[in-house]
């Protein structure tokens, strides 16, 4: 077991004023090594909230999260930042590349806190070659296509060798061709490295490429049988 959620709940607003919404309702969930899981659901159902809780970008109101048997819900400060940076790779719908930095510099950003990481540049160059962007390594994001920028975002998420990748609608801003290319890349890399991949997506076609599909609706996470 890589990651386990126990009775996680999350709400927004104030019950007393009536402006209250229970987004995540007592969810328990497990991710094993190498799992490829899709989470679907209507807009506003809390998919991103759940992903942010799993990635420790947000805290639940109640419940516990375990990573490799270690309870991480109460991590804070430097320990929380180190955990998030070293153990989890994040890919978002928008690439969030820094416009003033080159492709190589953007990929290396997650390695900056660890000044003793002498192999970071070599890893970054290897990843850039792998995704076919070697000739663009010294270019800045504004001269790249959307698909190329998202490939940079993928390898930036991989630079610290995380075992869990969290992807929030990573193809949402791409056309069909670039969507297919990006999904092929994610599946290939996750298979080669035995990474666990948890992806939020609106696309049922993308969801079907994963090992398991769950649907989040009205605070509950239920498995989807596609057979």
Task: List its traits.
227 residues, Rossmann fold, six-stranded mixed beta sheet, 10 strands
Averaged pLDDT: 91
Reported for the largest beta sheet, the result is: 6 strands, mixed
Number of strands: 10
Give me the strand/helix succession: EEEHEEHEHHHEHEHEE
Envelope shape: globular
Ranges with pLDDT <50 over ≥5 residues? none
What count of structural domains? 1
The whole-angstrom Rg is: 18 Å
Structure commentary:
With 227 residues, the protein is an alpha/beta fold. The chain has a single domain, classed as P-loop containing nucleotide triphosphate hydrolases (Rossmann fold, 3-Layer(aba) Sandwich), CATH 3.40.50. The chain contains 7 helices and 10 strands. The strands form 2 sheets. Strands 6-7-8-3-9-10 form a 6-stranded mixed β-sheet. Strands 2-1-4-5 form a 4-stranded antiparallel β-sheet, with helices on one face. Strand 1 and strand 2 form a beta hairpin.
Describe how the helices and strands are arranged:
Elements lengths: L2 E12 L4 E13 L4 E5 L6 H8 L7 E6 L2 E2 L5 H11 E4 L11 H6 L11 H11 L15 H13 L5 E5 L7 H18 L2 E5 L3 H4 L4 E6 L2 E4 L4
Parallel strand pairs: 3-8, 3-9, 6-7, 7-8
Antiparallel strand pairs: 1-2, 1-4, 4-5, 9-10
Q: How do you describe this structure in short?
A:
The protein has 227 residues and is α/β, with parallel strands linked by helices. The chain has one domain (3-223): P-loop containing nucleotide triphosphate hydrolases (Rossmann fold), CATH 3.40.50.
